[in-house]
């Protein structure tokens, strides 16, 4: 643990670093982050994670003692920080310094993936409120998903992620696994209830998200997605009877042609899913457990995150 020099007006910060996240050059860059937040105007405690769930435990145990919580890691590390934050009474603003392999949330928020620039953004003081989602009581920052290929993000070997970054997902996913999985995948029969509607069918993929992109393939209109509007986006893929249907679906996805038949997207505050089998879920790129029945819900203005005030945020009053 290191501390910066304490000034009367210094900000007390907790810097949580995942030393295993991202490529080697980003891990070296994390040392520069430590220097930036050891400046006189910061009183910074530094903690490194040692195992899965460590960041949640750290925030839960001592997060209330700080003015700012800084997360230097990937989307999974941030998910742990947020789950810890939501378990304490004090809502401490969060600074995200993305050093993971893909950094999907940082890209959505407009947070620079260059570590020095993301630190500068935090030190500028600009921040916005952000909506979270819950899956059976567990928080996720930007996506909960089930179905084909959703395990790629956490089943890709960490060493491969660290070497190739986002390319690792492409290599492990679409080149090696996606097409064979698509041919042999058995759709999941579910009843999905959402605000104002219900659909019961065999689903190949489904997600509830607060993001403009799902799985790197399905892109949503920036005009329709707002990160703090009190809604989540429910996306469903169903009705793929033949391989040719899957090919057509991929073409439609590239063109953002969500026809409401094979691909549906709706805005909703709550989702209830009833299923006759246990289904593996992915939360923010990490394994989210096996669930038979699910209740998902938005948590409006759950916390504040340092970010530019871009068009994905609702205008401030």
Task: Write up this protein.
- This protein has 317 residues and is an alpha+beta fold.
- It has helices at 24-36, 54-62, 75-85, 104-109, 115-124, 152-155, 158-164, 166-184, 243-254, and strands spanning 11-17, 42-48, 68-73, 94-98, 127-135, 138-140, 143-147, 188-194, 197-209, 213-214, 218-219, 232-238, 263-268, 270-275, 279-283, 286-291, 294-306.
- The strands form 3 sheets. Strands 5, 6, 7, 8, 9, 12, 13, 14, 15, 16 and 17 form an 11-stranded antiparallel β-sheet that branches.
- The longest helix has 19 residues, at 166-184.
Topology:
Blueprint: E1 11-17, H1 24-36, E2 42-48, H2 54-62, E3 68-73, H3 75-85, E4 94-98, H4 104-109, H5 115-124, E5 127-135, E6 138-140, E7 143-147, H6 152-155, H7 158-164, H8 166-184, E8 188-194, E9 197-209, E10 213-214, E11 218-219, E12 232-238, H9 243-254, E13 263-268, E14 270-275, E15 279-283, E16 286-291, E17 294-306
Parallel strand pairs: 1-2, 1-3, 3-4
Antiparallel strand pairs: 5-6, 5-17, 7-9, 7-15, 8-9, 8-14, 9-12, 10-11, 12-13, 14-17, 15-16
Helix pairs in contact: 2-3, 7-8
């Amino acid at each position: 643990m290191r501390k910066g020099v304490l000034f009367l007006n210094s900000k007390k910060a907790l810097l949580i670093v995942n030393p295993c996240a991202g490529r080697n050059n980003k891990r070296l860059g994390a040392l520069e982050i430590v220097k930036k937040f050891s400046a006189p105007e910061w009183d910074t405690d530094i903690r490194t994670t040692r195992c899965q769930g460590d960041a949640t435990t750290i925030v839960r145990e001592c997060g209330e003692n700080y003015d700012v919580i800084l997360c230097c890691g990937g989307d999974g590390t941030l998910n742990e920080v947020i789950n810890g934050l939501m378990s304490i009474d004090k809502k401490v603003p969060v600074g995200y310094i993305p050093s993971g392999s893909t950094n999907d949330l940082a890209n959505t928020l407009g947070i620079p993936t260059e570590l020095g620039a993301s630190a500068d953004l935090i030190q500028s003081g600009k921040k916005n409120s952000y909506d979270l989602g819950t899956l059976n009581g567990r928080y996720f920052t930007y996506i909960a998903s089930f179905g084909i290929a959703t395990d790629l993000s956490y089943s890709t070997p960490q060493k491969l992620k660290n070497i190739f970054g986002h390319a690792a997902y492409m290599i492990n996913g679409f080149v090696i696994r996606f097409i064979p999985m698509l041919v042999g995948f058995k759709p999941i029969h579910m009843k999905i209830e959402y605000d104002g509607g219900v659909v019961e069918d065999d689903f190949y993929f489904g997600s509830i998200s607060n993001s403009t992109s799902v799985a790197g393939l399905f892109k949503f209109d920036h005009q329709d997605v707002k990160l703090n509007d009190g809604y989540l986006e429910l996306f469903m893929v169903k009705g793929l009877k033949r391989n040719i249907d899957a090919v057509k679906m991929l073409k439609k996805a590239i063109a953002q042609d969500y026809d409401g038949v094979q691909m549906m997207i709706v805005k909703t505050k709550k989702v209830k899913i009833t299923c006759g089998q246990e289904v593996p879920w992915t939360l923010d790129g990490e394994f989210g457990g096996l669930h038979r029945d699910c209740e998902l819900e938005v948590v409006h203005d759950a916390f504040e995150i340092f970010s530019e005030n871009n068009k994905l945020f609702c205008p401030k009053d």
